[in-house]
Task: structure prediction
Amino acid sequence: MFAMRPVVFLYFVFFSFVAHSGSRADEWKSGIEWKVPRVVDPGPVGGPPADATVLFDGTDMSAFDGGEKWKIKDGYVVANESGISSRQPFGDCQLHLEFASPLEDQGTGQGKGNSGIYLMGRYEVQILDSYKNETYPDGQAAAIYKQSPPLVNASRSPGQWQTFDIIFRSPRFSDDGNVLRPASITVLHNGVVVQNHFKLEGSTAWDSPPAYRPHADKLPFHIQYHGDPVRFRNIWIRELDSGAEKIETKDASATGNATPPQQVELWDETVPHARGTAPEDRPFIDVYLPAADKAVGTGIIIFPGGGYGALAKGHEGHAIAEWLNSLGIAAFVCDYRHRGKGYGHPAPLVDAQRAIRLVRQRAEEWNLQSEKIGVMGFSAGGHLASLTATHFDAGNPAAVDPVDRMSSRPDFLVLGYPLVALGKPYTHARSQRHLLGENPDPQLLEMLSSEKQVSKDTPPVFLWHTGEDTGVVPEHSVAFYLALRKAGVPAELHIYERGRHGLGLARSVPAVSDWTDRCTVWMQNRGLLPQND
Ligand code: MG
Result:
């Protein structure tokens, strides 16, 4: 038995040798005739490679729309006034950029060094100072905003330069608008992989769930201005060829999006106070009409909140419009100008007044009674709505533009957790700063504090707020209510004990969700909705 062992051993060694040496096997080949990859000089460490398009080399921002507003200094550029967009559109790409949080270490949470790279203008890789700065994980630096936190936090300390290398694949849509292939993003933050081919569920927004809306294969990318002087340098991009990749033509993930509402610009031609002619300089309304057999002839222009720095068009716009449509009320979500688009006072008010005149002028076309046109606003949008109720005119009968002949006075107001009073210790400071800057004129503060501007001509108001709102405290609604009461203006006020700021329809919040029913009854009692039998 012992004699067998060396034989087994030798047998094993022999076959191992054959397998490894390849002397008996043939090389496997794919059979594909590969193109020889072209040569690219990678350039210095950190790039740009020879085939990259350099968008900012430290001297010139002309590759960006709005780039002239950003301040170039010592080889970098500082975000200022409003966001910028690449003049050239891009699809699949590799994007490199370097950023540093503001020199002055300021703010906390989302208010610290906030910016963002919006691929195709709609898919955001967040920029934030996330070094020892707590915020929600899907909103920290290198997060795909509200969809995917980074795998790790690779942030450098405030003021240091950091790199983003983003590899992006654009989504593809079928002719009928279905998603054939979702967008995907890989991100290296300071050389560390933090997003690994993440497949996006749709565009990223602060106020609404991800959703795809069909768009072109190439679009400009956008760099956000969020009020923070974030610095940028070495921005270059390489377009990637998606090759002969086969894309399934079946519907991969229908999004269930309803038909987008009709969009109507507030001015056909010249926009008053406009800084340019980019989309952000052209305010508009989204028109949501109820089913013709349900329409009651009442229309409401909705002003979403967003602290005069953004617009919460989801839960304070679209969702509200759908609810109003269900009651037979036509809704118009106003996309007014604000600081995020580079505008403070008076642009938001001018836009709001114009929206009211425009809806009134087109009342017949939209099946409305011109004396049943109200406004509804939330948070800062509530402030804007309150301004329209305290600053209005009957229109100019001699105006060339028929819209300008209309009255800008709303027939009624519905305000949800509104900002009302400026210049007070309880004022929402960020909204006031976005509207009026750091040191506003006291007279302007007075004029734009709606509780001080109420008269007997102010239209009737429905107000609701929550006691736990620390963003915009209920004192605003109380002050407005008392002023309305003093002036003899019909008003109704509801303050719910529980509930945070910014609840919108508050569908899932016990007690607060009651406000839509209370508001419905109020509108019935004012003849804006038919009475229940
Ligand atoms: Mg951001």
About this structure: The longest strand covers residues 231-239. The chain has two domains: 53-239, 262-525.
